Amino acid sequence: MTLIVPSRRREIEDVASALFRERGYAATSIRDIARELDIRGASVYAHVASKEDVLWAIVDRTATRFERTAEAIVALPAVATDPVARMSALVRGHVRVIAEDVGAASVFISEWRALTGERRAAILARRDVYEARFREAIADGVATGDFAMTDPAVAAAYLLTALNGIATWYRPDGRLGADRIADHYVDLALRTLTEDHR
Amino acid sequence: MTLIVPSRRREIEDVASALFRERGYAATSIRDIARELDIRGASVYAHVASKEDVLWAIVDRTATRFERTAEAIVALPAVATDPVARMSALVRGHVRVIAEDVGAASVFISEWRALTGERRAAILARRDVYEARFREAIADGVATGDFAMTDPAVAAAYLLTALNGIATWYRPDGRLGADRIADHYVDLALRTLTEDHR
DNA sequence: CCTACCGATCGGTAGG
DNA sequence: CCTACCGATCGGTAGG
What we know:
Two copies of one chain form a homodimer.
Chain A: H1 8-23, H2 30-36, H3 41-44, H4 51-74, H5 77-80, H6 83-100, H7 102-110, H8 117-144, H9 152-169, H10 178-193
Helix pairs in contact in A: 1-2, 1-4, 1-7, 4-6, 4-7, 4-8, 6-7, 6-8, 6-9, 6-10, 8-9
Chain A binds a DNA duplex through residues 29-31, 39-43, 45-46, 50-51.
């Protein structure tokens, strides 16, 4: 049996993720983070260079998790010609990345705005690449006739904000586990993109 | 022709809405708000009692707009026995309230967390009443067979976060006007609640 | 609506 | 990881 001992640096990031999610980056002080770890505010700076570095570490790591998940999906040959399978996998992957670390995911989704300069610009660009995979899957599905006619940009905005909303209400000890939520969201997403009513 | 001269108090709230939306409540100082109005920070206190009062005024006013819109809809006799018509009207109303003042809507949706004590509790309770109208319309539609079988709480969370997401990307000068966006969202919402795929 | 000011708290550093 | 400390900024008040 292996005991996982998280590094102090990682503990700081995890405590920060939880507090940034609850109160936001600006409303959380370095001393708040230190208090959770039973150390003094100044001691945090033995492990991190600045408060924004902590935010960046969380956002960058979480962006990478979303990116790798989506890249692994679109690299599957079976999914290249099947927009429905691709969209299902993208939705399931997105839900999984959120549920595996809902604090970090919330920070990635909402608190990146507190980043400044190049980091802010870089994250915006990476988000756009990621979101484009959803727009593309929608456009492909409309082209193949698997999805109903729709504006891909509007449908992707609708779908991605619904998915990101999970980070606002999900709790690991909630009524539904991550896999059940993923099942529901895949179903709702495919319904969103197909037609029945009227 | 009538010239609308907004009160200073209202100007403060409107500037605050825009800044709270962009940077968040905690990252916006009273001096930031004053600067936009070309007055000194201390002068803001001639019009408001506290920073949290400004937040509360925006959140309370916007909550009331959402509530009145939904109440007018559910009061329509034609809509009582028609969950599809009721849901369509709720979605259209929600989009309209956001688009009419996207700054205030963003603050209502995201920044209410900065409220403390009774105000925070009161807003949470009012949000729950509002959101329950969506859950109820979904449950009614499932019961009548107009909507596909689904978990009403999950479907409502999916739908409401998709709707609230509009406040993060909507711009009055954007590609699509509010009415077009409402058309798209009504369509997407009804698709979400009906079945076709598989 | 202004100037002048208050105590509290912030992010961060020096030196151990 | 600590104590001691820094300048800057915060929400807010007094008195005009």
